[in-house]
Write a structure and sequence with these properties.
The chain has helices at residues 52-55, 61-64, 78-84, 135-146, 179-184, 195-214, 269-274, 281-295, 311-315, 325-328, 339-352, 363-374; strands spanning 33-36, 42-45, 66-67, 74-75, 93-96, 100-107, 121-128, 149-150, 157-163, 166-172, 177-178, 219-220, 229-231, 237-239, 246-247, 256-257, 276-277. A hairpin with a 2-residue loop joins strand 9 and strand 10 (166-172). Helices cover 26% and strands 15% of the residues. The chain has a 6-stranded mixed beta sheet, with helices on both faces. Strands 11-13-14 form a 3-stranded antiparallel beta sheet. A two-stranded antiparallel ribbon has the order 1-2. It has 12 helices and 17 strands. The chain has 2 domains: 33-172, Phosphorylase Kinase, domain 1; 177-382, Transferase(Phosphotransferase) domain 1 (Transferase(Phosphotransferase), domain 1). InterPro entries: Kinase-like_dom_sf (IPR011009), Plant_Ser_Thr_Prot_Kinase (IPR050823), Prot_kinase_dom (IPR000719), Protein_kinase_ATP_BS (IPR017441), Ser-Thr/Tyr_kinase_cat_dom (IPR001245), Ser/Thr_kinase_AS (IPR008271). Belongs to the protein kinase superfamily. Ser/Thr protein kinase family. Keywords: ATP-binding, Cell membrane, Kinase, Membrane, Nucleotide-binding, Serine/threonine-protein kinase, Transferase.
Amino acid sequence: MGNCFGSEPAADPKPSSTNLSTPTKQSTPGTSRDYSSGGGLSATSSSAGLSRFSAALSDDACLAGEILPIPNLKTYSFADLRNATRNFKSDMVLGVGGFGTVYKGWVDEKTLMPSKIGTGMMVAIKKLNPESMQGFEEWQSEVNFLGRLCHPNLVKLLGYCWEDKELLLVYEFMQKGSLENHLFRRNAAIEPLSWDLRLKIAIGAARGLAFLHTSDKQVIYRDFKASNILLDGSYNAKISDFGLAKLGPSGGDSHVTTRVMGTYGYAAPEYVATGHLYVKSDVYGFGVVLLEMLTGLRALDTRRPSGQHNLVDWLKPLLPQRRKLKSYMDARIEGQYSSKAALQASQLTLRCLEGEPRKRPSMKEVVDVLEQIAAMEKPRESKNRSTHSSSQHNGQSPRPYRSPRHPSNQGTLTGAGR
């Protein structure tokens, strides 16, 4: 959403979010459809019974993460999902993005078929906006990537629908919504996230990225940001929206060259400047989100004074300085962390935001450091506080600039407004 720009490197004459071939559509609803990458990612699914992926949701193997041989997702007809959402009624809407509208729906827990509203299992159903320019590529990428990836910190894709011009995706329902909502939206029903919860969320998201980066088929997520981190009922973080995901470099190459797509404020500088995409380009995006979590401020907000619009440009020089900690840490979590823990978190953020990709830590190392920070001794006065939020919430932002936490004018790079 917002203003966009893009560049088209000559080395990538046929830009694609996934480098996968176009799926072969079969017009008869409920029949199987094949997706083939020619390089290992493929899917074949049937509407009959449970898929391998659905059955694997409770499989212990998924706890450590695995790549399924085939997505084999549940195939829905358009009528199925129309019934699950009460004909896509407005009171079933969960949210609206550049891809389209997301509805809540209900399916049977065993068969995954539509069930009576209020019975069975609630799911999130994303329906493509026919006017979306990048919609089909992103839909295809989501099926091919997320349909095969199984990990506790990745949102589960349960099924899809492709019928005529209708493209839909069915996901597990994430009760607490996005990290973005909890950090920035002014809503009396949403309490500020505590220091402990912010660390829990950061660790979960980091584990998800680490799994993608170390998998056999190295995956670069490409659009890591607060709105793409969803939270379940226990505040476990799961990465969602794989529409821009891309297979990593192969054959000894250090990067892939691709069309610049992503979100202003989060995209790594080398990617924006050259179109060269590294695994550690994701690490930069993680650093931006970590900075947002420490400060409670958006990565990009034109409502802030001149010189403070871009959070990284503004605060990066302060991160190594212990005496500057209180000037940028979110006032809503004051007293919940030790200065040592905050300084280590700031130093980790700074390392993730290194200008040169090779100087950034791996996501596995990021996980290790965050876990060490989480294990640190808390200030005595904070030990009896709720693990959910500070009781001294005053609605204020970090001291450098007390921002009215409204949605920002956050722009997107080409194709990323989801």
